[in-house]
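Need tokens for this chain, all 477 residues.
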Amino acid sequence: MDSLYQERSDASMKTLSLSLLSHLVCVGILSATSAADLKVNRPNIVLIFSDDQGWNDVGAYGSEIPTPNIDRLAKEGIKFTHFYSASSICTPSRFGLLTGRNPSRSHDRLLGALMFMAEEDKVRGIHSDETTIATVLRDQAGYDTALIGKWHLGHGAPSFLPVNHGFDLFRGHTGGCIDYFTMTYGKIPDWYHGLDLVSENGYATELIADEATHYLESRAKSEKPFFLYLAYNAPHFGKGYSPKDDAPVNIMQAQAADLKRVASIEDKVRREFAAMTVNLDDGVGQVLETLDQTGLADNTLVIFLTDHGGDPVYGGSNLPLRGTKATLFEGGLRVPCVMRWPGQIQPGTVIDQPVGSLDLFPTFCSLGGVETDDHVLDGIDLSPWLLHESAEMKEREFFWELGAHAELDRQTWAALRSGSWKYLRSPTEGEFLFDLAADPNEEQNLAEVHPERLAELRQHWETRAEAYRSASSSLAP
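Here are the structure tokens for all 477 residues:
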């Protein structure tokens, strides 16, 4: 057996397990398994994270794109209707997911995408004391941990790479996107096995699925639980190369056979996006089949979610939600999220309470028996709803911030959700106030109707922003 796959995955398995359990408990749908049993018989965890796939890009959420395998997870488990990403941009969404900390706290103020060829971004990324859930679960709970796919949290030095941030195994790429056929960023190699660049050819989505299959097969007889973070680059556009300009170029890279499967979609770019999406869904199906064949399925929590909203320029759709990737409207932040855990999650469950990716870290730690006193976290521990069978969740605040990014012509954004109220500041349209309970698609700006509420939420945002900036500055290396 490949020695690179002889890795501890206890931490990872714990992570997904805890997250799912917490959410399930919140609505009283967990089976009779006790918390004590869960700490002894920890499930394996497979966390599937797709890229630039929006609210209307998954069949279970109303899309015309067929995604039967992702939909299967919703049918056999939980579908969340208000699951929020930590950001509407790739790098900060991943920072929040893996650290449990708002991206505004990050040393390097990771509030925009790290650019693979930008000199300034070669010295930016996740730092050694910005602890990932993989590190905690591996070192304190004994999990095997693996990352297969996209990293996008630093590429300029080995210290930024996943193997130095809690992942025993890393096979994939470090930049924001990749050529699906050559595994390069333009013409620059970016496919790693651990710390080593390697040459790979094929189709990136399928390579990632094949690596996941290999890893799962290697864990079949292990007594240790595993955490597999399966971070697809699909259906994000590919990063091709223009010989004429000697420069990278954004390009949709669907395979011919997949295009035939979605031939009924008339718009060319949407059809290409759909073709890349059905190939991704095939990969999810391959993972589920491997879990079945290896006998791992019954003790494995599988979570599928996307990193943020889709980009209509490259075929994504967030309808009927307002906004897109790189905005802080609901279409940029609310993401599809489904979870399955056979025997523990009641099939066909729908959870409407607002939760988010920042909640996964503290919940996993609590359910895994790991203390979090030494960690600064911004999510809430959902395990009390498991332990005390609470059916209701208190109202809470969600904070988001996007930084300016000259290369991508992006400006700063601000947003805060408190209960059903949401404050938003756009760089071009000014301030908004929405009541999401009455107006989930953000069609009616109530800023002039409720000026006191607007001022209150604006102040809440400013207070949090200043606290996060101060924390980032005080921790900077």
